[in-house]
Each structure stands twice: as structure tokens, then as C-alpha cells.
User: Fold this.
Amino acid sequence: MVEEEYGSKVIDGRTLAKKVEEEVKKDVEVLKVERGITPSLATILVGDNPASKMYVRLKHKACERIGIHAEDHNMPASISQKELISHIEKLNLREDIHGILLQLPLPSHLNEKEAMQSIDPMKDVDGFHPYNMGNLLIGNEGLVPCTPKGVIRAMEEHGVEIQGKHAVVVGHSNVVGKPMAAMLINRNATVSVCHVYTKNLKHYTLEADILVVGTGVKHLIKDDMVKEGVIVFDVGITEENGKVYGDVDFENVIKKASLITPVPGGVGPMTISILMQHVLMAAKSICKSL
Assistant:
């Protein structure tokens, strides 16, 4: 009901994701015809975490829609660090695999950082390898984390002016917060990064022209924490009694926002479409280097 009333303010991530997927699909077809190459993604799932299985399934369905070949590599939860890295290294060497995605989180006995760093940076479609993160920091945005890149694409689609604006990022993870801040800085925003140790969060959020929130804390951001006309990207997700909630109290914050993403149906679909874009980018890059 709230979305219907304030429809023009709502960023439809599903529609935007379809647009990105159509762009990628066309380029995939061109690559197949001109070079005889089908972009290929290998996903590695360790254990049987239900949420992780669902995310991998969604990524494979996107590949199917676009014409990207997808391989599912399911590893037992008991796999050792050495065995996991050995498997990744084999995929690194395969010329027919252009993108490698290690689904997180991993079982607690495995070292996520070490595993991620063993992926060939040219095949790191998640954009988490230190090489790709370092490039992001100096303004070379190639394979970068998909969620913040999806947020930037949504801003571009809606004509959001970033330069000179005060952007506040709540959450400083390597997946969203830090790369999001870097992308905003690359576009000449003034950026504040807040996290669990920030004192007086409301002081910062009230100053935000652009607010990006990714903490996984249900309805952390209330309507009295934002100013009129704010642009809000809700990247958080919490499941409670079978229902999904974002980090932002959507029903009340939407009344003050000029643009806002819902949960679900906002940033999530964009993340997967950007991943597809990255598989295509990696395939083109690897083809050039052969």
C-alpha cells in the first residue's frame, strides 16, 4: 500500500536488473558469434547452508536467462583449507572457466580471506581479491564488489547527482561498506562511514544527501534519522518469522525520501545482474590475454 502511494519514489531493482541482463545477453551473443566463446561461471558451495544454496541457485538461473554457462561445484563441509585452495587453483588454470565465485560464508574451520585470495584476480567476479580492491581505491573500477556497483548503476539510471553531495555509508564491511565508500569518493562525494562503534549515528544520518545502509539490523534507520529529500539505498536484510526486512523502516522513511529502495526487490536483483556483467567482462578480458 505504501509503495503504491509513493510509487514514484521507489527504485524498482527488478526492472533495472532486467535492463542490465538484456544488455549482457546481447553482448554474450556477440561474443559467441564473433569469437565462438561462451562466458562461463564456476560457483563453489561448501556445505549445505540453505541460504547459500538459494543464492547460488538464483545466480545459476540468471546465467541460464542470459546464456552464460554455469558449473556448480559442491564441496563437503568437512573439506580442508588445502583441498579447497587446490580446487580453486584447478579452476584458475581452466581456460573454459572465466569467472569463479566462492559462496560465503564458509564453515568456521576455513579461512575465507586466504581462500578468496587464491582466486585468479582476472576471474574474481565478486571483486573481493586485494588486487581488484586496490584498483578500486585508485579509481580503476574493473571487477569490483557487485552490490555497491549495483547501487551506483541505480543512481546513474535515476540521474542522481553524486559529485559534491554528502554520502553516508552505514556499515564498513569489505563486501558493501568499504567499496561503496570508495566508489562514492571516486565520484567526488564527501563520504562519512559509520559502523557499530560510531557514536551518535543519528547525527551523521541526518546530514546525508545519499544514505547507503548495510548492517543486517532490522529497521535500524527510522524516519527521525533522515532529512527531507534524502536518497536511500537499503542493502541490509533480516529474516524474521518467514518475512524479510531491511535496515530501513521503509514505510515511514519513504515519506521523507526522494528515492528509496525496498527490501526485497531493491538492491538484491541488481547485485546478481552486475555479477552477470562481471562474468562477461572476465571472459572478454581473458580472451584478449590468450
